[in-house]
Amino acid sequence: MTFEQVKEILTTKGGLPAAPIAPDASLASANIDSMALVVLSMQVEEGTGVEVSEDVLAQAATVAELAELVGRYAEPRA
Amino acid sequence: MTLSSTAGPVPVAAGLWHEQHVPLYWRGLRYTARVVRPDPSQHVPPAPSPPGDTGTPAVTEPLLLLGGALQDMYSWPRLERRIAPWTPIVLVDLPGTGTADDLAPDQGFDFLADAALHLLDHLALPRVNVLGTSYGAPIAYRIAQRHPDRVARLLLAGTTRRVPAPVRALLREVADHLEAVVRGEEPPAQDDGTGTARRENAERLVDLLINKGARERVEQSDAARRLLCRQFLRTAPTEALRNAACHRRLLGADLIPDGGIRGVPALVFTGEHDITTTPDDNRSVAATIEGAAFVLLRHADHMAHLERDGEYAELVLRFLRDLPLDGLPFCTSPEYLPQPSAHRAG
């Protein structure tokens, strides 16, 4: 999943303003709170069938890292 | 009522906001407030005005926010973000919640209202707006009733004069269980080792707060349910004891004292699908406040601040700025209720 896709979910489904969501922004400065992470987790699960905990996603230092992490979960499993 | 929040592993938004932590001490108990305002050293984009706003300068008194039983002073990042550009927000971990000292079981909402007033005195705030949600509503009510001169506007969300019988029964049961577990009288859940019993308890609590029957009609219902469930499952035993104490406080005397309120502009609201404090419960509280407006947020239940955070904030901001509440697509038209004689202010 790309940064743009993650941003799209966070803004359209997670109710966050788009402007602060930049690749190098921390989750806090991008306003990504627990509710937004839950919404993101649920969207990923819905799209891939793979369970991804928001606690794991919260470990990301930046939004780019978050997108990378989500991407890893969203990749088809062998 | 037990309420939960967006509090979790992610810190509150930083950078654009300046936050000040204020240590407090009241009748032997330590507690802390947090004041959030725009950081003057940062560029803060102007807050989007509510539709219909004529561009009136954003001048209103600071907002004191008294949240739910399972919330703390970090639980409202989305409301902070929307309100702070207009006025400072004061959040507080009152005794018995968050980082504060424990509150003795025999101390109730009167004590908490006094502690909140002490906070206002300490911050030299003669007059504030007060938003009390759920467990915070009886505290906010007492402040406005006893010191109407200190409250510019009163907002109560998810409130009731008395916790309904089925909710009381469940809260009592949950409190008994939590206390027994911490005392070691019961195993950490009559569990099968897989966490099933613990999860069931968490889900029962969540069922009090989220209207399962209106799942299709409440926005973000599944996400709010999952957030709350995870939060309950993460609760440590010591925290669980405090939660139990909060539950018991709600089971005590009437939450809303007799005598009503007058002389304070007030708004009472909740989600139209609230089953924890039903629309009628909220309406009956509004009826005790002279001139109070009562509205219901559409497509939301008791957890409206999570489910419709943008609309929730807009409603609050409109009221704080004396903007009209009529014709808003996300809530019902304001009702102004006749006061029953028993609660007529005076």
Present the secondary structure layout.
The complex is a heterodimer of chains A (78) and B (346).
Chain A: H1 3-12, H2 34-48, H3 54-57, H4 63-74
Chain B: E1 17-26, E2 29-38, E3 63-66, H1 77-83, E4 89-93, H2 109-122, E5 128-133, H3 137-146, E6 151-157, H4 165-183, H5 196-209, H6 221-234, H7 237-251, E7 266-271, H8 279-286, E8 293-297, H9 304-307, H10 309-320, E9 335-336
Parallel strand pairs in B: 3-4, 3-5, 5-6, 6-7, 7-8
Antiparallel strand pairs in B: 1-2, 2-4, 8-9
Helix pairs in contact in B: 1-10, 2-3, 4-5, 4-7, 5-6
Q: What number is the mean pLDDT of chain B?
A: 85
In quaternary terms, these chains amount to: heterodimer
Largest sheet of chain B: 9 strands, mixed
Q: For the record, what CATH class of the domain at 18-163 and 253-343 in chain B applies?
A: Alpha Beta
| Strand order across the largest sheet of chain B | 1-2-4-3-5-6-7-8-9
Based on Cα principal axes, name the global outline of chain B.
globular
Structural class per helix/strand content of chain B? Answer: alpha/beta
Quantity of strands of chain B, as a count = 9
**Alpha-carbon distance between the two ends of chain B:** 28 Å
**Count of helices of chain B?**
10
Alpha-carbon distance between the two ends of chain A: 17 Å
- Average pLDDT over all residues of chain A: 90
Global Rg of chain B: 19 Å
State the helical fraction of chain B: 25-40%
Helix/strand structural class of chain A:
mainly alpha
**CATH fold-level assignment of chain A:** Non-ribosomal Peptide Synthetase Peptidyl Carrier Protein, Chain A
